[in-house]
Amino acid sequence: MISSEASILGYAVAPTPLGAIGIAWGDAGIVRTWLHAGTVERARSQVGQAFPRAVEAAPPPHVAAALADTTALLTGAPRDLAGAELNMASIPDFDRRVYELARTIPPGSTMTYGEVARALGEKPMRARDVGVALARNPFAPIVPCHRVVAAGGKLGGYSAPGGTATKRRLLEIEGATIVAPPVQAGLFD
Question: Which residues are catalytic, by number?
Fold first, then answer.
């Protein structure tokens, strides 16, 4: 994900009703978030495992704004995080394109994996690749992978702690219509 830890300047953590959120940044923007990391101590531990030389610090204004908006989202206030500065320099091209498109999905709206593939000019069968890219998303919920669902109103998968229950909660916070209960089969139809 990140090619050099030397580019990491700092990190911050914040408690939310869904668990702590962690955010790490460098000169070129946010490099990673940890959604629903459990306790604040657990979030610190996760950052330390990923970036042992990172220093907990007051974030610069653009990161502080992203952290405040993310925390507000997780406490129930709808927020659009599309303006947060992300460092995607080491993200594979297809994944980056998926993340950029996902960031255009407004809060309260969803797209299916297949719709994302088609919007990227890909064949619908690349829907599974969209799902794989979103499962690797290092910026949740700033890159709102929770807004990408399976066909037929199914939630599909979600790789953050809490799985589809967390995905469902984020969609409910944003006022999205959720039709079907979560399923394990047919996630990328």
Answer: 145
- Which pLDDT value is given to residue 180? 55
Residues 70 and 137 in one domain: no
User: Which two tokens mark 6?
Assistant: 């030397």
The model's pLDDT over 110-162, given as tens digits with 9 standing for 90+, comes to 999 999 999 999 887 899 999 999 999 999 999 999 999 998 878 888 887 77
Q: Give the CATH number of the domain where residue 146 resides.
A: 1.10.10.10
Give the pTM.
0.86
Considering the domain architecture, whether residues 101 and 52 belong to the same structural domain is answered as no
Distance in angstroms (rounded) separating the CA atoms of residues 164 and 10: 30
Indicate whether 64 and 117 sit together in one domain.
no
Q: How far apart are CA 73 and CA 1, in angstroms?
A: 25
Could you check whether the bond before residue 144 is cis, i.e. omega within 30 degrees of 0? no
- 56 and 117 assigned to the same domain: no
Q: From its phi and psi, is residue 65 left (phi > 0), alpha (psi between -120 and 50) or beta? A: alpha
| Spacing of C-alpha 38 from chain mean position | 16
What is the count of structural domains for the chain? Answer: 2
* Segment 59-91, tens digit of pLDDT: 999 999 999 999 998 888 878 888 999 999 999
**Rounded CA gap, 53 and 71, in Å?**
25
Tell whether 60 is covered by a domain: yes
Please give the average per-residue pLDDT across 94-113, as a whole number. 95
107/139 same-domain check:
yes
